[in-house]
TrEMBL record:
GO terms for cellular component: cytoplasm
Main localization of the protein described in the UniProt heading: cytoplasm
InterPro entries according to UniProt: PXL2A/B/C, Thioredoxin-like_sf
GO MF entry, a single one: antioxidant activity
Similarity field: Belongs to the peroxiredoxin-like PRXL2 family. PRXL2A subfamily.
Species per Swiss-Prot/TrEMBL record: Steinernema carpocapsae (Entomopathogenic nematode)
CDD domains from the UniProt entry: PRX_like2
Subcellular locations according to the entry: Cytoplasm
Classification via PANTHER family: PEROXIREDOXIN-LIKE 2A, PTHR28630
Protein name in UniProt: Peroxiredoxin-like 2A
């Protein structure tokens, strides 16, 4: 069936175009660690982040700044670096991580998220059982920021698998905002990072079972 489809496309567009499209699809679906990198930030780097607690989007730029190091001193933290607050895939991951809130509270571990844009945060917050901070300098996404080009995102097969899963859970979203900068999930304990998940593609969420296992090792 696929051979027939490409044959028909080839007749209309020319086999050169089909070959180019096939190459683009193949490249887009390579492991993104090979195409855009995958280096987790260090705790010391994240600690220098200047964050603003978002109560309402309209106040995001006027609230006082707090360094992430101050949050890390309070207690261990599970942090979600959100790719795009309006994204249904990010909202699904936020909801899944929030199922760990009871276990986190028992262990004295705080749960919070950071965003690199505050548009859509008001609608994101119902999916997430923790504070949301604005990271204007995008330090939680670096120092080796991973930008997934839009064309690659749309050509990746796992994008559609992740969209299907989100829709199956009844999660809705929108297309507003900057969605190319990939996020991640970090479990930070003092100056150590026992767990880190770097988003490999749109909707590549942290495995909640793996996060829970990392949490349970914490005493």
């Amino acid at each position: 069936m696929i051979d027939f489809l490409f044959s028909m496309i080839g007749k209309f567009l020319g086999y050169g175009a089909v070959s180019a499209l096939s190459g683009a699809i193949l490249y887009a679906n390579l492991p993104t660690r090979l195409t855009i990198g995958a280096v987790a930030p260090t705790v010391s780097y994240l600690a220098g982040s200047k964050l603003k607690l978002i109560q309402q989007e309209k106040d995001a730029l006027t609230v006082p700044v707090i360094e992430a190091s101050e949050l890390f001193k309070k207690s261990p933290a599970l942090v979600m670096a959100v790719r795009r607050p309006g994204c249904m895939l990010c909202r699904r991951e936020a909801a899944d991580l929030s199922t760990l809130k009871e276990e986190l509270d028992k262990k004295g571990i705080q749960l919070f998220a950071v965003v690199h844009e505050f548009k859509g945060v008001n609608e994101f917050k119902p999916f997430f059982k923790g504070d949301v901070y604005f990271d204007e300098e995008k330090r939680f996404y670096g120092p080796n920021q991973r930008w997934l080009p839009v064309w690659m995102g749309f050509l990746r097969f796992d994008t559609y698998k992740n969209i299907y899963r989100a829709k199956k859970q009844g999660v809705e979203g929108n297309m507003e905002g900057e969605g190319r900068l990939l996020g991640g999930v970090y479990f930070i304990n003092g100056d150590e990072m026992p767990y880190a998940h770097l988003e490999k593609s749109w909707g590549d969420a942290a495995d909640v079972a793996e996060v829970l296992a990392a949490i349970k090792k914490f005493n």
